[in-house]
Amino acid sequence: MTSARRRVLAATAAATAAIALAACGSSGTTAAPAGSSGAPAVSGTVTVFAAASLKGSFTELGKKFEAAYPGTKVTFNFGGSSTLAQSIVGGAPADVFAAASPATMKTVTDAKAATGDPAVFVRNTLEIAVPKGNPKHIAGLKDLTGVKTALCAKEVPCGAAADKALDAAGVKLTPVTLEQDVKGALTKVELGEVDASLVYRTDVKADAAKIDGVEFPEAASAVNDYPIAALARAGNADGAAAFVGYIRSADARKLLAEAGFQTP
Amino acid sequence: MTPSARTRRAGSRVPPLALLLPALLGLAFLVLPLVGLLVRAPWSALPEQLASPEVWEALRLSLISATAATAVSMVLGVPLAWLLARTEMPGRRLIRALVTLPLVLPPVVGGVALLLVLGRNGIVGRWLDSAFGLTLPFTTAGVVVAEAFVAMPFLVISVEGALRAADPRYEEAAATLGASRLTAFRRVTLPLVAPGIGAGAVLAWARALGEFGATITFAGNFPGRTQTMPLAVYLAMESEPEAAIALSLVLLAVSITVLAALRGRWTGS
Fold it and tell me: Which CATH superfamily is domain A3-123+225-258 in?
């Protein structure tokens, strides 16, 4: 991307964000401060805890946010949603939490650590990740019973979703490993240690140079909602509200859709 | 305080405050987290938490694989320690540095390295797979390999230390009486450094029991096959902190029991 084009994009981002924020402010659905409808008085560092599967798109959105709100800096902590939720409840200094499942967000809302109701901003579905060229000719979930497969552990969102999809397909599977997060499951395919794994569509898309993806119909019954919320103990409450507003803006939605997410 | 007063105090065996205070703080720092585990433990729900077959599967697997890793470490590590302590060879310092590298290497790096060498597409692993149909990742043998990788240096270091402390003249005497070098090693050196081997084995076993990073990277995580206690604890922490605390207690109890039982026997302290 040329720098001129980037500048145009940044300007567009700023404009859309401002409009989105103004819209939110007038309808009163977010915690955006009253003064933010004109020139937003947002500054300082915004610390965002986000699901590992959001890493690519959020890194880019963070840069755009910084461009839209000069004087702000976004720092990310990407990881397994469950781990992040536990550390937020444990008092980790975070302003925003974006989780890969409502269940992990519930850990945070149950502890009264979020402000307002979390909003679902994207959805993600599963795909079968296979090595380039699909050497084992995997066409659907049923084909996974005969090959080495890596799944996510059921304790983490991608594993819970995989369980649901396999149930829906009536497939009983014995994976060789239950990975602690979706990136772990993906890497094992990339290294050729397993023949297939169930990962998010967005992961397949982001890693398209090294792996192929196989869609399957049962994925529809295992759609993961991604909620986002500003946190109650946020050190930068204005920044948190602005970031949540920005992620829900049309501009951010477009970028997330390009990364393979479904936007509500 | 005058110097003479200080000497008197040392003489009366009352530890000086400047030593006692940090010592006690150090003790508290090491012990308090474990106390925290006991305080926060869900005692009433504990029997139920521990009744699940997964817990016992993970514990059984942990004990078996840690013991196997210790055995591997002894079979390969004792000769390696002997090589480092008793022979003159070029590049010995470098070899010693390499041997102790896993001590400071993040275990997960060790796991990555093992995966790249012994994995299905690894340099050695590819050959193992095609020649013997043997793949180590995602198997219990893989767990043992990962644990031995991080645990063996502990054994090598303590055996090498014991060998250096042992007087080589006994071996020389055995040699003058006609014993071969191997016989001298077996009949003289080994008994001489047995306490060192024992202490090293205990250290290696304890390290193997707690191994997490290399195991999950190289051997993956599957209940009954590769899910050891540390992995079970980590995954339980994702969804059920109570269960994680319960599992941690079991691991703590096992470690303390074994260390206490073996320390007295092997190291005489």
Answer: Periplasmic binding protein-like II (3.40.190.10)
